[in-house]
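This follows on from our talk about sequence and fold. I would like you to pick a protein and set down its sequence and fold. Go ahead and set the record down below:
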Amino acid sequence: MNVGLFIPCYIDQFYPDVAIATYQLLKKLGCEVSYPMDQTCCGQPMANSGFSNLTKGCDVNFVKNFKDFDYIVAPSGSCVLHIKEHLKEGGSPAEIEKIRHNVYELSEFLIDILKISELQASFPHKVGMHVSCHGQRGLHLSSMTELVAPEFSKSEQLLRMVDGLELLKPVRADECCGFGGTFCVFEEAVSVKMGKDRIEEHLVNDVEFICGGDTSCLMHMEGILNRQGLGVKTIHLAEILNSAL
């Protein structure tokens, strides 16, 4: 299948290893993967700040880069959700509808499209899983604890296929880390306090790594961990799944 690799701008600039791991993982799982070189920001930061009317240029560029792929895959639930919900211009109605229907967050693509049931990956460490709000509540990648409904998590389903990995869940499994896009800039003190609370619950479990599907959340928590001099590291889901394939 023909897959377009959609790499959010902050991953491209600050965490290229996540992009590389995603590319390698998809290739090893049999996908024909291409990375459109002219892609840039999807427009989410502007939309989050109330300026969605200024994202037309981002829409035009996104459609131009990704309209011909069967599937579009990104290691970021928040950016995928933005495209699904807010892409409205930049191409014909058919092109826009195709993109919005065929753009997937990585774990969603692996479980729902590739239907992965086993992985030859190894990561012998204690890992805490961070559930990001956009992925959970927007893309429905996992269940919500406030609902009386069957429990599920696509990321956890994948992590449980990894040899040697001990998955440890915090008490409040789906608590926000406080990043929230531009929220962490405009409400810095609240954002940091939420991040500290989130990290504390993982520390109780004596984890070595905090894993997540959104590098933005991991970046927020990584900054707090580093400033406090703690030894816990953050790691993207793609990096673990690609660890020993």
Notes: Residues 188-204 form the longest helix (17 residues). The chain has a mean pLDDT of 94. The chain has two domains: 2-113, 126-241.
